[in-house]
Amino acid sequence: MSEEKQLLDSLMNHEVVIDVKSRYVYLGHLIDYDEHYLVLKQADVHDLRDSSTTRELYVLDSRRHGYPYNRERVLLRREEAISISKLSDVRE
Fold first, then answer.
1. pTM of the entire structure?
2. What is the residue-wise DSSP string for 11-47?
3. pLDDT along the chain (92 residues), means of 10
4. Residue 82 · residue 20 · CB < 8 Å
5. Using the 8-state DSSP alphabet, how is residue 66 labeled?
6. Which CATH code is given to the segment(s) 3-86?
7. 3-state secondary structure of 2
8. Which of 50, 38, 52 is nearest to 85 (CA)?
């Protein structure tokens, strides 16, 4: 089993935060993935251009207080992702 697969498997069914190349941040439950997509359920797709906060503060506030999801299911192209981690791993 590849290291990448092991790492993604360890995130399955957890709330995750995904930083992407654009000015968006994705929060949600990672429920599946394949070679092209990451699949989130009950996800918040947040456009940082619509907000006066930074990416870091938005994610930290979401960890502290929760987040309203605006998508029941999201397919995110893996090539867009810069990083992915458990939301519970976000620290102040």
1. 0.92
2. HTTSEEEEEESSSEEEEEEEEEE-SSEEEEEEEEEEE
3. 91 97 96 97 94 91 94 97 96 85
4. yes
5. -
6. 2.30.30.100
7. coil
8. 38
